[in-house]
TrEMBL record:
The keyword Nucleus is assigned to this record: no
Protein name, entry field: Multiple sugar transport system substrate-binding protein
Keyword terms of this UniProt record: Sugar transport, Transport
Matches recorded under Pfam families: SBP_bac_8
Amino acid sequence: MKKMFTSFLILFLSIGLIGCSLLSSNTGESSEGQGQEQGTNDGEGTTIKYWYWADNSEYSNVMQEIIKEFNKTNGKGITVVGEEYPWDGGAYSETLFTAAMGGGGPDVASFKLTSTPLFTANDLLANLDAFINNWEDKDEIDENIYNIMKEASNTDSIYVMPWNTQILYVYYRPSIFEKAGIDVPKTYEEFLAAIEKTTMDTNGDGKTDVYGFGMRGAKGGQEPWGSFIYGRGGNFENLDSEASIKGMKDFINLYEKGYVPPTATTDGFNEIISNFKSGRTAMTIHHTGSSSGMIEALGEDVSAFPFPAGDGQWTSMGDTENVIFQSSKNKEAAFEWVSYLATGKGQEMWTKATGNVPVSKSVQSMDYFQENKFMKASIDSQSYAGILPILDSTTEWINTTWPNTIASALMGEKSAEETMKILKEELYK
């Protein structure tokens, strides 16, 4: 991989792999690249500079409290100085990259996995293998999460420290399930059957007024679509395999048989959420970021379950993580800080405040998370969650190739075989 292939990933950084990116905006009042310092340095021991973004002023205040708590309790004389920068549609990552290349970056920074190839190709990130292998809390984090960190760098090493995630699951309307006389599906086949059974003409006028599934055919739909491919035993590496093609046929079948709204070819996030809230669809796929709106609109008539297993199982994971820079002269102290955010009090404080999914098993086991049905569906999906391949072609594939090719397939202009051949060729070109 060549150094300085910035044009690809700098553009890609603004693309959320879950459709709605984790902490996707920022209201911090930084200007002209100057961070707003938070936390104090009392001059004792080691000082760590930490760059981060926050979604709003409430989250910013929470991070300030986490920093203060760590500085007061770490017992090793470590002082974290937090500098907040705006996310700015992904420009945060470009600012971070430019600063690191110029030698003026922080010791630690919040981070997106999609940035990993760019930063590792330029030798900017510290290898965390030794730190994690010697860490007493190593097993607090699911092995699958570590594997995703490795996958992001396309190596067998970890350069990104897990922090918090958002994981796709299936929303469903219990009242519609009751009317259709079905239970929550436990297998992929049962899920397909549930989509068919919850597609109904409820008023007897001969027209469908409830569709079983809210399909997202526009940009961003590649992630829920991926669950259908894996449900038949396919995967992103072999998109043209027999199993992957079978999953594609399932997806086409939903449209051709009228189990999804006829607008599915162009439906995006707003449409699938609106259709679900209005009762036009019985199920759809998203994450905890939309759960409060669902509860506000539907009360108790909304619940969730993990995407069920078939011959395989997969769901999409969005992320916000942390990295330590190779240039840091205080890597041991820096790891104390990122591990505090991963499994310490900082993990609990941040995920409770933001509604993101914790990576710490101990935090996940708290009643606060286990008694939240949407969080529980996310946590139960964590062991098989994943990300799309991070390649030079991924941005164009997400924005153009996938929605255009899928639309042609749904409308009968391309066969499943042709569709998957194109998708593989364009992703791995």
